[in-house]
Design goal:
Layout (H helix, E strand, L loop, with lengths): L7 E5 L3 H13 L5 E5 L3 H12 L9 E4 L10 E4 L15 H17 L5 E4 L4 H12 L6 E3 L3 H15 L6 E2 L2 E2 L7 E2 L5 E2 L2 E2 H4 L4 H22 L4 H15 L4 E10 L5 E12 L2 E5 L6 H19 L4
Parallel strand pairs: 1-2, 1-4, 2-3, 4-5, 5-6
Antiparallel strand pairs: 7-10, 8-9, 10-11, 12-13, 13-14
């Protein structure tokens, strides 16, 4: 007998990121049979469910519909993209009080529904909101994940590919820390085709500073030109969701709960972690130089200062 149940995903927030995530997820896995879209404008969610249903004959049969928070009761994953988007000239941290308030109005009814799966947060500032989502929900830390520096790491790989005239596919490189202006590249751990970058070429301190700054500025440039960023983060969300529902046990850079790693506790920050059906299988403490550890701690201090001043 065929197993007719696979997995159920609930998407909260059907803006540009949310709808693009749904499109990407349906194309990247055949392990879900139910995708629920929740948005404050239900007609938008209904329209997207109908629109997305059109691709299922070319992907896999999935039940798609507009729903509400109660639909999370038997879901495996709840993905939260809802929130106020960043405007030109704003930092991600400028959004914190508005989006923290929105987050609480989402988390509370989802927990009340009986949801016992994994939360994935992508709303900004993602490290702050992921930390708050865990505190508000009371969930075990491994069952709350933020997209963290996943997008920053993709941008780093693109910039390195242009700098070194290499395919992005042979470059393995990570940004760590805050998804924002205090993030940094772990340059000593970058590999090209499995070989350490340091054995193949030398980047000057100026090169490194320029590359990191370009990563920091990438989102703002996109927002200035087209009003929003969504393809990259939607693909990152899809990758994390797929890792959970397929129990893939793969390593991804995410907002992970730090409990002593890098000398930091009680906050989520960007670092590699193993992702599987439990959510976070293991947080990986990446080998960093003393200078990089200090940068990670400065990221944590910045986040802790913001958390201490949130009004909810």
């Amino acid at each position: 007998m065929l197993d007719t149940y696979r997995h159920k995903v609930v998407l909260i927030g059907d803006g540009a990121v949310g709808s693009t995530f749904a499109f990407s997820l349906l194309q990247s896995t055949n392990e879900i049979d139910e995708l629920v879209i929740v948005d404050r404008t239900k007609a938008k969610a209904e329209g997207d469910a109908l629109d997305l249903a059109d691709i299922t004959p070319l992907t896999s049969p999935v039940k798609l519909y507009a729903g509400d928070y109660a639909d999370a009761a038997d879901a495996d994953v709840v993905v939260i993209t809802a929130g106020i988007a960043r405007k030109p000239g704003e930092s991600r941290l400028d959004l914190v009080n508005k989006n923290a308030t929105i987050l609480k109005t989402i988390i509370d009814p989802i927990v009340a529904s009986g949801f016992a799966g994994v939360f994935i947060i992508s709303s900004n500032p993602v490290d702050i909101l992921t930390t708050l989502a865990q505190r508000i929900s009371g969930f075990p830390k491994e069952r709350v994940i933020g997209t963290g520096t996943s997008l920053d790491s993709l941008r780093l790989r693109v910039l390195l590919s242009k700098k070194l005239h290499l395919s992005v596919n042979v470059i393995d490189a990570l940004m760590l820390g805050e998804h924002g202006d205090t993030s940094f590249a772990a340059f000593n751990e970058i590999t090209i085709g499995g070989k350490p970058l340091t054995t193949l070429t030398a980047l000057s301190s100026t090169d490194k500073a320029e590359i990191e700054e370009a990563v920091h500025q990438a989102g703002g440039k996109i927002i200035t030109n087209k009003g929003a960023t969504f393809y990259g983060i939607a693909k990152c969300l899809s990758a994390v969701t797929r890792a959970i529902i397929e129990n893939r046990n793969i390593v991804l850079p995410i907002s992970a709960p730090l409990d002593g790693q890098y000398g930091i506790e009680n906050i989520y920050l960007g670092t590699p972690a193993i992702i599987n059906s439990q959510g976070i299988g293991q947080v990986i403490e990446y080998p960093l130089t003393a200078d990089e550890v200090e940068k990670m701690r400065q990221s944590a201090i910045t986040m802790q200062e913001v958390l201490a001043n949130i009004e909810m």
